[in-house]
Amino acid sequence: HVNTTDSAVQITYLPTGLQVKCQDGRSQTQNKALGLEILRAKLFEIAQREAQDSYSAQRKSLVGSGDRSEKIRTYNFPQSRVTDHRINHTSHNMEGIMNGEINEFTDHLQKAEMEQRLAEEEIS
């Protein structure tokens, strides 16, 4: 029956260009319904894979390499200098920082994190 009627369907999802062809059913209506179901499943699978990849990348960036050379902060007592290597910020207020006055670093860290989130939003 497939050869005698024009019942095959090809569906294209325009935003991604994903195409599905279906000619399993006996009627064009059946093939369209089946094709839409297959397309929906493929789009769902792609969305899940992208979400998983994004989650994995974010998690990997949080964990780091575990390498000993991966410094966070350096305290140089002779020069009264503290450097945060994640944000490339240096302070010469060693005494204040040792007494808990770390707002200078937390403000810069929050600013850097906000800039990173905005950059990620622009990409996606």
In total, the number of domains comes to 2
What is the residue-mean pLDDT, rounded to a whole number? Answer: 87
Distance between the termini: 46 Å
**Sheet/helix structural class:** alpha+beta
Count of helical segments?
3
Secondary-structure element series = EEHEEEHH
Assembly of the depicted chains:
single chain
State the helicity in percent bands.
40-55%
Strand content: 15-25%
- Please give the order of strands in the largest beta sheet: 3-4-5
Apparent shape: rod-shaped
Commentary on this structure:
The chain has a 3-stranded antiparallel sheet with strand order 3-4-5, covered by helices on one side. It contains 3 helices and 5 strands. Helices cover 50% and strands 17% of the residues. A hairpin with a 4-residue loop joins strand 3 (73-76) and strand 4 (81-84). It folds into 2 domains: 9-63; 73-123, no CATH class. The radius of gyration is 28 Å and the shape is rod-shaped. By secondary structure, it is of the alpha+beta class.
Topology overview:
Blueprint: E1 9-13, E2 18-22, H1 28-63, E3 73-76, E4 81-84, E5 89-91, H2 94-98, H3 103-123
Antiparallel strand pairs: 1-2, 3-4, 4-5
What is the structure about, briefly put?
The chain is an alpha+beta fold.
